[in-house]
């Protein structure tokens, strides 16, 4: 998106520019939302590829419910199970074969971000005439082949994959974890969100998902110096997340808290709050590089580097870090320097992260000293934040995270 620049006393800064906005995913939210699957399925042909992960959907009953609806709608089901957290390129090739061989009309993903991301990857790759890893992930090209429509039944909250074009695939041989943000034609056609389905997520995954949401918001918030509506929306989303996550931590079956978190996760990364923002994404870039080397849980790769990253970057975007401290963490500014206010905000964020039980250092994820240079080398450097990092600075941040 084109960002307008205006000259100010502080130099050039972004201001809300002109943009087009469309989110084509239809959402069905709530305890009975699965019933919407009947109508949705009627929009597509008979051949449905049912994609899911390692079996949690069988244990919590949603598999039986979905299969029952598919049968009631007289669909032919082609199952593709075993999508692993951080789906691999090998699994993608396998899925492409199933989709092509059976000429499926719809890919129905039932699971978390990994399952939804994988479904989108198969959707664009099944009819790709060259290696989809090279074309869509390494070279990040636009899709110019047939796309199979995707629908999602979400069971894990965090990624926002249910309402965006993101699809992250890991290539362990090449030690690369790459996310392609595809266009609106690849967004899920529909997504079904029942907060009750998230009750069975194990605590480690649950809190990793909570931090993934926080990180998505911060990656977009910590950019630009203009007065931007998106920032006000994000401060509200952050406050809601902090409030509800504390409730969910004590009682994971609190419907109100879990539904608020589910809704916040969707808004955090359904592209709305990115409008008018240059956006940072360096925590995710470092986190993805760590993921390629360790296969660690996505949200924990972010929590483990976030404090070191934000403490490093704060001096370059002090005004926004001050705003964050006051508007999100209720830091009282009177009698304090900007730096003190910003530091207090980051301190409160760190205490909150510890309260959730997040992983706070990369050694806990299996990263060792001798891996730091390679991880820094594999980190893709983005330019939308307050400071474009060089190799040495990434190593320093990793060093401070170990
Ligand atoms: O495999 P199953 O049996 O389904 O178990 C999963 C998995 O072990 C389990 N789980 C999911 N729902 C459950 C449940 N267990 C019990 N009850 C339930 N209701 O949780 C584990 C983790 O699932 P996963 O889908 O891997 O988690 P998440 O949703 O965090 O997805 C992570 C993937 O999404 C990518 C990440 O990089 C990672 O590959 N991301 C995608 C993004 C996007 N599309 O925009 C953006 C994100 O930043 C992220 O990069
Ligand atoms: Zn994320």
TrEMBL record:
Record key words, sorted: Oxidoreductase
One GO CC annotation: cytosol
Catalytic activity, EC: 1.1.1.-
Domain Alcohol dehydrogenase iron-type/glycerol dehydrogenase GldA: 24-195
Molecular-function GO term, any one: butanol dehydrogenase (NAD+) activity
Domain Fe-containing alcohol dehydrogenase-like C-terminal, residue spans: 207-401
Name this polypeptide is given: NADH-dependent butanol dehydrogenase A
Gene source species: Christensenella hongkongensis
Lineage: Bacteria, Bacillati, Bacillota, Clostridia, Christensenellales
